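Run: sequence + zinc ion -> complex structure.
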Amino acid sequence: MKKIEHIGIAVKDLNLACDLYEKLLNTPCYKKEEVISEGVHTAFFKTGENKIELLAASHEDSPIAKFIAKKGEGIHHIAFDVEDIYSEMERLKGEGFVLLNEVPKQGADHKLVCFLHPKGTNGVLVELCQEIKE
Ligand code: ZN
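>> structure
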């Protein structure tokens, strides 16, 4: 794991949250993207080296809608930047962590991603992400 790539925050209304985070971070959102496979609308902010990803459900059955119904708005996941997502997934599986997807998925912001089950990580949803190299 190289560094924390971003922190994901679940929000009800992406536009309202975007306005708020623009004020909070004093920087404009640099990217909005829908990830259809995950049922989310995302918005990204950069603060120096770090990024914040806001996530809003795009439909009722979205994992984000379920998360908010259960826990309310707030920190949803922590994403770590990895050099090679395939070897990192193998390594973590070998250590007994439960992967939520066995094959990396196309995530937002031009990344391959894999999530770890929060039951095995003290309640924290962990995302691995690797920049897609052209
Ligand atoms: Zn993320």
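>> summary
The mean pLDDT is 95. Residues 6, 8, 53, 77, 79, 127 surround zinc ion (CB under 6 Å).
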